[in-house]
Amino acid sequence: MRISPVLVCLFTVVAVGPVRAQFEYGEILGTVRDASGAVLVHAKVTVHGLDTNVQSSTLTNDQGNYSFPDLRSGRYEVTAAVTGFRPAKSDALALRVGDRLRTDLSLEPGLITGEVTVQASVTPLLETDTSTRGQVIQGQQIEELPLNKRDYTQLVLLVPGSTYNPDQRLGGAISINGNRSLQNDYLLDGIDNNSHATSFRGDRVDVMLPSVDAVSEFRVQSNGYSAEYGHSAGAVVNVTIKSGSNQFHGTGWEFFRNDSMDAHGWTPTLGGAKPEVRFNLFGANVGGPIVKDKTFFFVNYEGDRERNGVIFQATVPTLDLLKGNFANPPAALGSTLKAIPVDPTTGAPFPSGVIPQNRWSPAAARILAYPQFPAPTPNPLITTPGAYINTVTNRVQADKFDVRIDHYLSSKSRLFGRYSFSDSTTFRPAPFNGYAEGSNNDQFGNTLTRGQSAVIGDTLTLNPTAILDLRVGYTRLGANVFPPNFGSPSSTDLLGIPNLPQGPKINAGWPKFNISGLSAFGSTTSQPQYQIPNTYLTSGVISLQRGAHSVRAGTDITYIQTAILDVSAVRGTFTFANTWTGNPWGDFLLGLPAAYTQTSLTVAYNRNQIYNFFVQDDYRILPNLTLNLGLRYEYGTPIYEKYNRLSNYDLATGTLLNATNPAIGDKSLVKSDRHNFAPRIGLAWTVRPKLVVRSAYGMFYQHTFRQGRENLLAENPPFLHDLTRTQGPGSPAFVTLDSGPPSNFFATALPTDQAVRGNDPNLKAGNVQQWNFTLQYALAKDWIFEAGYVGNKGTHLSRFWNANQPYLAGPSSTLAARRPNPGFGDVEYMDSGGNSFYNALQIRLEKRFSNGMTLLHSFTYARGLDNVGAWNDPNGSLYPQDAYNFANEKGLAENIVQLNSVASWIYELPFGRGRKMMSSPPPLVNAVLGDWQVDGIWTWRTGLPLTIASPACANCAMGGDRTTRANVVPGISPSVSNPNAQAWFNPAAFTLQTTPYGTVGRDTIWGPGLQQWDLGVAKKFTMTEQSYFQFRGELFNAFNQVNYKPPASAVGSAGFGSITAALPGRNVQLGLKFYW
């Protein structure tokens, strides 16, 4: 897309950064009237920051309205004055991030002999000027509520409609109102804080995870937010870093955990000790004035040191199998491993069921002679043949800091800058020791992550009714992952297998060995790997007050550069089935794989831009009725590669299109979607002084697919080779353990051997239509009750399927002949055909902090449907069972629970100096009985839905990239009267599929729910008037309740229908903080 010079100039004058940038701020607005109710025009209104002593002034317009739209969260007073009237001043107001705090003032006639202190005509508890649903989590809640390992994003779960799957490993990946957990927009001081790394290397969805003690507060906007926000189709989580004030303040802290304080979990340790846990979190911050009333600073540092034990269980060859003896196998041994192997040279079984060692592959013999090759663990509690157990220790070392400067150039210009930095190293040992490693995924090894975030902004008061906010920002997340044995000798040197890949960027021990029925061993896949996204942001927003209209308009540009090395099998993968001998272990001993896979090493340099424009008019049509009207336009370029090294599978022609071909004329190979208009409309109607009705509708777009598949088109030939050669007894072995692959392996590739990927050339930006109808009622002082209906519909969501899935029948029984394009194998294809639906009743009860107590209770009753799973859902089905029948994929949404209730509280016990009881005790009594606080979070929810899977039936070859489901047994209910760990559902209700497509639907079984109490107690020890220590004790899952993980849900799997694992038992965390 070409951007005209005129448009560029307009960006330069009106904007510089993301539209979302200014909304670390809140707004104080209102109307000034005289005692009779008539509006006062050109009254001077002044807002006074009580923390900074900084003042700003404006004049009321011709309808008596005023607005301060860009104020930092904090404490303020508002004063109004006009000739002939006594000035009026508000009470102290607590402005939170994203608030629109109405403060109407009434002036009485008279001389200026004093001020009249008034309050807003509508209690600030009610949101009378906005239709947005959401919740502010204030600094006190962030610092005082119990948080395991001090991660503030856990508090997002206090918001109605929020759920989290504890089995996923992505921090901050929370589903809100049924939207995908990767559709949320994380902002830090108003700028983009989203990780743009594919597959989310760094294990989080955000770039920076600020320290709990650095966060001032954050707001979650969950539904119906205004046109100022966009870029993502889910919720907005806007976090603000603390800033300095006219007083020097600081905090120091140390939190720690130790397994000796933790309870034994329900998951058995097979007679071993509890896994090691050592957690130390320490840090300090300080803030204050550089120049009083003018320049302020805030600095925060935090360090994290962890050791976390992990118990691995795996299946390895039995002692007899390690000797080549297949006679008399244990009854519980896997069926394929029980078979007596046959000699592929004669077709006869090996005598006595033993493969003599002189027939073993020399390479296989060297592997088994390795001193650390895993053998079964001798343990009387383990009865499974070939069971292996090992406890390893993950280690984490992380450091981070934030620096923020606020400078008031004048009453008309407020400048700020912030820089945040984090650096962490995480080492996850593999299940097996040494070069045996053993990995079915890419989670093991060293992960080096460095995050950076910077922003500079200036808020300019152009005139009493116009304010301009300008910002530039930058984020970078460098995530480098290295396998455990990176830098070791090459696979060829270690095992003598010729022609294996080698080089300084590849060498990391053995290749990978997949043996059917056993746990994989050898090196980790998809490593080494790095993903380094750089995001550049510029924005500008102008705020105008025109009569009854509060208008905001602006634009932003986001430019994303990402360097990606993310390929699999760079050291080669040998796969052994029962192809040659009828037994996969027999095939291994003879060195005869069923398949060999190897991937070339290629780095992609992806690019894309996002351009946004918006206008928002909050029109106070009546004194008690505000309309929120907005329109947003978003344009995101498709991803392209710096050197045009993309190729795309074309469904129409069955060929690969290459972006380097001048005849194609499209470097992204995907057409631009320029139709992303996002209307927003809402209303806030103050029916009575204590009752507000609010409703909203809006369209929201998702411009970053964030499905771990953003790099699909860079993983195609000729730029990347991902080649799998299969073989069998019909012809001589192409690859053996002793010969290795051919030296020209990639040159031997046939199209059917090559993994191919594709994107729909008409790919759309996913969108979600959101709506709500909400009632807010002020029950009493500081108490608010809210109930509402919330709904949304997702359209054009990303989905993945095999675009070359074989047909059921064809002119030939061969797999290739039954494919739409016999010249290719499987084609992993992404399009935008996904849909979702969500409806919910949401209730919130909140008590703002007063009289030593605050309370927040959220309840959600929800139902959701979709036809595609989410990439990061561990229970999900990302691929369909049948790519030609997506209608059969409609089912319960895998990220939605039906019932969810969460309560949090902080209560300062009324004993001690300055409190209601024993307000003047002797020092010793106060030291023992005074200044205690209790706090906690209670969570109760039902479970997430599960799909009953099945291995593909025999002779049902239908290619890859599909989720195979079981068959339903007619007349047998899957329900049990008392679901428990031994039988969560009735396994007899399901059977192995006998045709390629099972009859059970998606997500038909509800998994276990969760009930947990996280409790905290704190004691303050006063040192001086300005300083004190606080000791904290926190118990997570305080009553050690058993919260089961999902049951085994694949027919034929061990323990099908039963549960073998649970979430952790009680954990204890202690902390000491010093405030001054």
Automatic annotation (TrEMBL):
It is found in: Cell outer membrane. It is a multi-pass membrane protein. Residues 240-1069 form the TonB-dependent transporter Oar-like beta-barrel domain. This is TonB-dependent receptor. It comes from Solibacter usitatus (strain Ellin6076). Residues 129-235 form the TonB-dependent receptor plug domain. It comes from the Bacteria. Keywords: Cell outer membrane, Membrane, Receptor, Transmembrane, Transmembrane beta strand, Transport. Transmembrane segments: none annotated.
